[in-house]
Design goal:
Layout (H helix, E strand, L loop, with lengths): L1 E4 L4 H7 L5 E5 L21 E4 L1 H4 L6 E4 L2 H11 L9 E5 L21 E4 L2 H6 L6 E4 L15 E7 L3 H8 L1 H8 L4 E5 L10 E5 L3 H10 E6 L8 H9 L3 E4 L4 H4 L5 E4 L2 H13 L1 H18 L2 H16 L1
Parallel strand pairs: 1-2, 1-4, 2-3, 4-5, 5-6, 6-7, 8-9, 8-11, 9-10, 11-12, 12-13
């Protein structure tokens, strides 16, 4: 099957393109949001190929994955076919909704020609999709392997654009929590994070990022309102114990035997101190978290769920 999909969410797309199909990725000269093409920091298979807008008009496409409202406009323009009407289409929703609860109407609500796929059950609960058919296909992770050493008495945090995302990403919690244990913050745009007990590491390749994360004693997930941070799932796969805010899907993902989940900053701070001081407890929690993550977010389950839906939508 030839699937047109934009490179919007790098970690999700990395998992998706591991399947048995051909993945057509729009590419533009500036490699901006509308045409990033193949990833630069992930290793993608040869089945993921780039096509310019001019080339797409002559490319056979069996299905379109829409992830943003503008994707539908671009697909109509570049393919000369309207998604959902002229070519089967799925609207993939990565994000938790923003705004007043009674006004969380999905842009693709009440569409008979689409299926909306949510990546978490929390998202499916909060988005109002009207009469549009919906599914939940939870994330899948390429297992980086058990790498945990915990040799550094510090906590790792992974966040992109912490200044722009601010309270959404819990950026304001980093400085107070760094008083419990020193923090190492990884991601894009983290250079703007300033605090005495915080060090930042920008734009590391994925393999090095995983190796560096696993050297830290504990993983801190301070996000208030995200769909489900894939960095959290990656940390669990690495074998890291988790300290996390108990918001959105996180309480469903991190079992009690894998770490500490709470909405009280004082509880999080105490957990960071305790796990940093108790390396054996940290190791036991991390191994339990890895088992839970492998069981729920394995790549084979993810690809199987998607294959079932792709066949359903195109049949």
């Amino acid at each position: 099957m030839n699937i047109l999909v934009w490179h919007v969410h790098g970690s999700w797309t990395t998992a998706f393109v591991q399947g048995d199909h051909h993945y057509i990725l729009p590419v533009l000269p500036d490699r901006g949001p509308d045409g990033r093409g193949r990833a630069r920091t992930w290793d993608w298979p040869d089945a993921a190929v780039e096509r310019t807008p001019g080339e797409l008009r002559d490319t056979d496409i069996d299905l379109v994955i829409l992830q943003r409202p503008e994707d539908e406009v671009l697909a109509d323009e570049w393919l000369g076919r309207r998604p959902g009407r002229d070519v089967p289409a799925i609207r993939l929703e990565h994000n938790a909704p923003q705004g007043t609860i009674n006004e969380l109407r999905h842009p693709a609500a009440d569409r008979r020609d689409l299926t909306i796929v949510h990546v978490t059950h929390f998202n499916a609960l909060f988005w109002d999709c009207g009469s549009t058919v919906t599914r939940v296909i939870e994330h899948g992770i390429i297992d980086p392997g058990y790498r945990y050493t915990g040799e550094m008495e510090r906590a790792a945090v992974t966040v992109n654009e912490p200044v722009r995302r601010a309270r959404v990403a819990g950026t304001d919690l980093l400085a107070p929590l760094s008083r419990a244990v020193p923090l190492d913050v990884f991601g894009m745009g983290v250079g703007a994070v300033k605090a005495e007990r915080i060090e930042v590491f920008e734009d590391l390749p994925q393999d090095r990022l995983h190796a560096e994360m696993a050297r830290r004693r504990v993983y801190l997930h301070p996000f208030r309102w995200t769909s489900l941070g894939l960095s959290l799932l990656e940390a669990m796969h690495l074998g890291m114990p988790v300290v996390a805010l108990g918001t959105t899907e996180t309480p469903e993902v991190v079992p009690p035997e894998a770490g500490v989940v709470s909405n009280r900053p004082d509880v999080l701070a105490e957990a960071l101190r305790r796990l940093t001081a108790e390396p054996e407890e940290a190791r036991v929690l991390g191994k339990a978290g890895r088992e839970a993550a492998l069981d729920r977010f394995g790549l084979n389950r993810f690809l199987s769920d998607w294959n079932d839906l792709l066949q359903e939508v195109t049949s």
